[in-house]
Backbone:
């Protein structure tokens, strides 16, 4: 279900418009989020962990709406990693059921809002019902031209890179023809711009195998707020911090 390879898009930023309360700041074109802290959010409230995951999914819509209003064009949500299979079986099964429920419930609304849904990750370990559910969502929204929402589920950066190498070998591409641009075309994100900003909620300070190839020049922001409590105010604080950073991509400003 990975996107078909196309020409690579370069990282970019677009200005906020007056309608979006613009003040000259720039917002990232592509924001990727590691939605962490659901389980701890629930435990601090004396609730089972699945209640935290449910609260986390309930928070997605409001954040997506805020992203759209603020001018973000691409959003990638890290929902389940290849390493998350090591969690208790009951929690894994609950996450699978929760994802299916959310996709079935929200696809129609996302379609009405002109959102295009994409999937990043493996599908061979998902239940047949979940695979069919995801495919219906991809098919329904594939011609939409608004916000691009990518769901990273059963995704691992190293696994993605190994998968890309295997496909390159299978295609018989000579080593001297392998370039960064060609390699990019074999990734799940082949037709997406690299993330300008990666946000991790929940206070942890690590990437957790998320988009290692694509994030080499991404800006990072680690929020102490657990994902279920990550609201528009916190998002705007993050984007304000991003707007103060200078992105040189290995070069120097003219004044330096």
Residues:
């Amino acid at each position: 279900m990975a996107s078909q390879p196309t020409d690579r898009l370069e990282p970019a930023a677009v200005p906020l418009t007056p309608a979006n309360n613009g003040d000259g700041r720039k917002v990232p074109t592509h924001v990727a989020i590691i939605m962490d802290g659901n389980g701890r959010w629930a435990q601090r409230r004396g609730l089972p962990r699945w209640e935290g995951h449910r609260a986390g999914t309930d928070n997605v819509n409001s954040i997506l709406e805020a992203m759209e209003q603020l001018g973000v064009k691409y959003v990638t949500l890290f929902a389940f990693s290849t390493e998350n299979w090591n969690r208790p079986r009951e929690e894994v099964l609950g996450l699978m059921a929760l994802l299916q429920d959310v996709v079935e419930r929200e696809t129609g609304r996302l379609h009405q809002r002109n959102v295009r849904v994409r999937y990043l990750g493996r599908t061979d370990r998902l239940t047949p019902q979940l695979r069919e559910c995801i495919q219906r969502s991809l098919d329904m929204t594939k011609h939409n031209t608004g916000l691009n929402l990518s769901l990273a589920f059963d995704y691992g950066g190293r696994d993605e890179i190994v998968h890309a190498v295997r496909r390159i070998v299978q295609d018989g591409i000579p080593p001297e023809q392998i370039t960064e641009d060609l390699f990019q075309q074999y990734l799940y994100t082949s037709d997406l711009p690299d993330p300008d900003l990666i946000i991790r909620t929940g206070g942890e300070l690590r990437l957790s195998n998320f988009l290692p190839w694509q994030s080499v020049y991404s800006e990072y922001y680690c929020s102490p707020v657990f994902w279920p409590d990550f609201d528009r105010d916190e998002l705007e604080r993050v984007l304000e911090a991003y707007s103060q950073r200078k992105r040189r991509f290995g070069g120097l400003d003219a004044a330096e």
Remarks:
- Residues 29-243 form a domain with the Undecaprenyl pyrophosphate synthetase fold (CATH 3.40.1180.10).
